């Protein structure tokens, strides 16, 4: 059971344009209190690095350029460095790292990916398929997660073999083959924040404040999203503050 601590307010903050129309002679100012000034400053650049990305997988390997040149499967790609694109595909070396450039058409955005040597491909496959954020997705989602940032000659076949041979994916119930239940009409939402959907995400890599989970909330009417960091996900600790009034309905998968 979820417990709720409500904080009712008069409404959401209005935009600058609305406030200027109501108070034409007023000006907006920012005040720093003594309590705020005593807190240590937050470096946005350093805090953003706490968010895990696929590029962090290869970041510890400073010998990536050496691994690339020693990999025989990447030799044809090195030979094409500096040549014009063929079928929208070209190659370049940036900071010693071999990268693949691909554009679907002449006017499409060029997608740049890192060429992964064979010695690191299992690491990339494991991260894209088995990490907490991946959740053992199928071939399509795993392939999309990899191909947006990495590439190698046999990437599609390797992803297919990896996802189809995953032990956990084989022993879990195959819900995709179950007969789908018939659609049921969903009542129209009358007001904003009348019906909200909630879910729990985690466990995630620990943040600097020791947060490990996220409670996500989405308003069905406006698709407004909230994410509340949590240190634990026990029934006693899971609570969110409703700034715009309590919702009438809460939809959850009870997970």
Automatic annotation (TrEMBL):
Q: Which domain of life is it from?
A: Eukaryota
Gene3D superfamilies, per the entry: 1.10.340.70, Ribonuclease H-like superfamily/Ribonuclease H
**Residue ranges of the Integrase zinc-binding domain?**
116-170
The GO terms this record gives for MF are:
nucleic acid binding
Q: Which Pfam families does the entry link to?
A: Integrase_H2C2
- List the residue ranges of the region (Disordered): 1-22
The family database entries (InterPro entries) matched by this protein are listed as:
Integrase_H2C2, Retrovirus_Pol_polyprotein, RNaseH-like_sf, RNaseH_sf
Chain intervals with Low complexity compositional bias: 9-22
The name of this protein is: Gypsy retrotransposon integrase 1
Instruction: Provide the taxonomic classification.
Output: Eukaryota, Metazoa, Spiralia, Lophotrochozoa, Mollusca
């Amino acid at each position: 059971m979820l417990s709720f601590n409500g904080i009712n307010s008069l409404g959401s903050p209005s935009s600058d344009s609305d406030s200027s129309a109501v108070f034409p002679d007023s000006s907006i100012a920012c005040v720093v209190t003594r309590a705020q000034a005593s807190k240590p400053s937050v470096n946005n650049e350093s805090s953003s690095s706490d968010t895990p990305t696929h590029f962090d997988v290869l970041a510890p390997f400073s010998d990536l350029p050496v691994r690339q040149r020693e990999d025989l499967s990447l030799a044809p790609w090195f030979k094409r460095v500096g040549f014009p694109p063929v079928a929208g595909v070209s190659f370049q070396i940036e900071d010693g790292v071999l990268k693949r450039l691909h554009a679907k058409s002449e006017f499409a955005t060029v997608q740049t990916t890192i060429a992964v040597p064979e010695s690191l491909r299992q690491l990339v496959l494991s991260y894209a398929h088995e990490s907490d954020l991946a959740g053992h997705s199928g071939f399509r989602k795993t392939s999309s997660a990899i191909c947006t940032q990495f590439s190698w000659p046999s990437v599609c076949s390797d992803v297919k073999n990896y996802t189809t041979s995953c032990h956990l994916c084989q022993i879990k119930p195959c819900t995709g083959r179950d007969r789908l239940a018939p659609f049921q009409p969903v009542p129209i939402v009358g007001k904003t924040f009348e019906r909200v959907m909630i879910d729990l995400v985690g466990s995630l890599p620990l943040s600097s404040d020791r947060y490990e989970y996220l409670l996500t909330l989405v308003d069905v009417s406006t698709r407004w999203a909230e994410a509340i960091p949590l240190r634990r996900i026990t029934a006693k600790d899971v609570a969110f503050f409703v700034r715009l009034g309590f919702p009438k309905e809460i939809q959850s998968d009870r997970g």
